[in-house]
Write a structure and sequence with these properties.
The protein is of the alpha+beta class and 81 residues long. The protein has a single domain (3-80), classed as Sandwich (Immunoglobulin-like), CATH 2.60.40. 26% of the residues lie in helices and 36% in strands. It contains two helices and six strands. The strands form two sheets. A three-stranded antiparallel beta sheet has the order 1-2-5, with no helix packed on it. Strands 4-3-6 form a three-stranded antiparallel beta sheet, with no helix packed on it. It is globular and about 50 Å long.
């Protein structure tokens, strides 16, 4: 094992991500529709958004709730731990 591999395996951010995934399940993001809006909630981490599933994602919120208009625009969301 190279030093670079050891750093990746033992990095604090990787350990935190694995811990959070186990603690909050693999699908911590929930979406509810009401009044023409979509409200996204998640227990921890940073919400990210992209125009396409394979696109680069950008941070949009660090709280636990984010509300957007449920219009025709297609967006993809994920939570980064």
């Amino acid at each position: 094992m190279t030093p670079g591999q050891r750093e990746w395996i033992c990095a604090a951010s990787r350990i935190a991500a694995h811990y959070s995934a186990g603690l909050y399940t693999l699908h911590p993001l929930s979406i509810k529709l009401a009044g023409g809006n979509a409200t996204l909630t998640w227990p921890t981490g940073t919400l990210q958004q992209a125009d396409f599933a394979a696109s680069p994602y950008t941070d949009v919120a660090t709280g636990s709730t984010y509300t957007v208009s449920a219009g025709l625009a297609k967006k993809f969301y994920r939570v980064r731990f």
